[in-house]
Amino acid sequence: MAKLLKSKLSRKIVILTAVLLVLFGITVYKDNKSLVESGAGAALNPVQKVIYSTNKRMESLIDFFLRYEDVKKENEDLLLENIELEAKLRSFESLQEENEKLKEMFSIKNRQDQYDYLGTNVIGRTGGGIITSYIIDKGSDDGLQAGMAVMSQEGIVGQITETAATWSVVETLSSENISIHVTTVEDKMNSGILEGHIGSGQKQMAKISYLPIDSSIKEGDDVVTSGLGRFYPPDFYIGEVVRVEEDKGNLMKTAIVETAVNFNDTRMLFVILPKNMEDVEY
């Protein structure tokens, strides 16, 4: 039925186009026009406008039918993506609500309340095309210490590895010198050590190593800090799992993570500062 409709519409377009060309040939492009012909052209001009307008509408209609399947597929893809995002949001909200209830039940103190955030500016970089570390304009005079976590508005960037009085060195997540204990939002049992990793095309990434072979970690999982470690609050965003590799010989998995932070476009960072070093849990 759809093919028959397209065929009929195509024939109409061809006929209307031929008529339009004849009319323009008579009234516009003819060199020796008589007075009568000119009058006829003037009379036909409104008709030509109507035909032209109708022709355009039919072209749009045909274009719609020809692109109908593509448009339908695009709408379906967008709908599925929206459903997936809503499902993720519901899952996250459910976990958050459950955690809050458990905290109230056992009077557990919120770990994130134990930290402040100090804004700093990036004043230097190392690594050339692959940014492995930054130099920031705050140091030990501001209370900074090696090991403190550093973040941007997108998520965790890395940690401080060296301090001076007025500046500090921050190693990024893609550096092999950094190790962070992480987990996934979808399953807290998917915990492991995140280290730097350089992907294809020298892309800066990270990887979670030594995951058990029966781990449920999968592509699309959201990776966050686990909260283990002196300077890392829990549930701070790291990035998304883009690939899972199996080492069946050693009964382990490795998850490749695309970090949320664009290391080449970072200008301002925030150091996560414990309010009281004695209160920070290990």
From TrEMBL:
Top-level taxon of the source organism: Bacteria
Biological process, per Gene Ontology: regulation of cell shape
Ranges in a coiled coil: 68-112
GO cellular component terms given for this protein: plasma membrane
Transmembrane segments: 12-29
Annotated keywords: Cell shape, Coiled coil, Membrane, Transmembrane, Transmembrane helix
Domain named Rod shape-determining protein MreC beta-barrel core: residues: 122-272
Function in brief: Involved in formation and maintenance of cell shape.
Protein name: Cell shape-determining protein MreC
Organism, as annotated: Proteiniclasticum aestuarii
